[in-house]
Design goal:
alpha/beta; Metallo-beta-lactamase, Chain A; seven-stranded mixed beta sheet; 8 helices; binds zinc ion
Amino acid sequence: MKVLFLGSGTSTGVPVIGCDCEVCRSDDPHNKRLRASVLVQTESTTILVDSCPDLRQQALRHNLTAIDAVIYTHEHLDHTAGFDDMRAFCWRREDRLPLYAGSSCLEHLRRMFAWAFSENNTYKGYIRPDAHDHAGAPFVIGDIEVTPVLVQHATVETYGYVFRSAGRSFGYVPDIKTLPDASRPLLMGLNLLAMDGLTTREHHTHLNVADNVALMQELQPERGLLTHCGHAVDYRTITRELPSFMAPAYDGLELEV
Ligand SMILES: [Zn+2]
Ligand SMILES: [Zn+2]
Ligand SMILES: [Zn+2]
């Protein structure tokens, strides 16, 4: 299984519009962050996680022309606003594009993009989703097993996901403030785990870097990554401060799990 970080940034992206802090002015390409999204791939299956507002740029950068399914973590706009750019993934397929989300996110998508979900949407140029409410239960796409992991983030229903294929596992939790006890076993001992590391200060809806490290140390993945990072996170500084099994993700990072 391969994981490609299409974007590793928080909702503003980095640099932040109008900000002249050191990270926003940095020349280090690791500090240029598009909004958070990953591609999970095997030889036969490609899954996009979230359609962020930078999806067009991400698809062009990585020559991404087809996906087998899209999965949503939650309804915040930094994870959904690129929905319409998935038209390009529908032009080349006869059937509808499989889309998986929890109930709340799906309801939000149906409201925001009502025309796409309409029974009357038969025009080939539009995005034509085949929507599934996973309701927190595991599901399978091609040769990848997907397990939703309910987490607490702001006031919206939010999921992380664990992807498993050929005995390997990858957990992706871009937006989380706390991990409920019931979800904890699902994220234990994975091969790779990427989790919210928004900032270096306290934050009321996201883990900060110290919270992330503490939770990683409990969950003990073989390898841990910070993602969904903002402009308080300088790539080189944070890399030095993290335990040896951890690193910050960055845009374009591709890993074999
Ligand atoms: Zn977010
Ligand atoms: Zn800044
Ligand atoms: Zn969010």
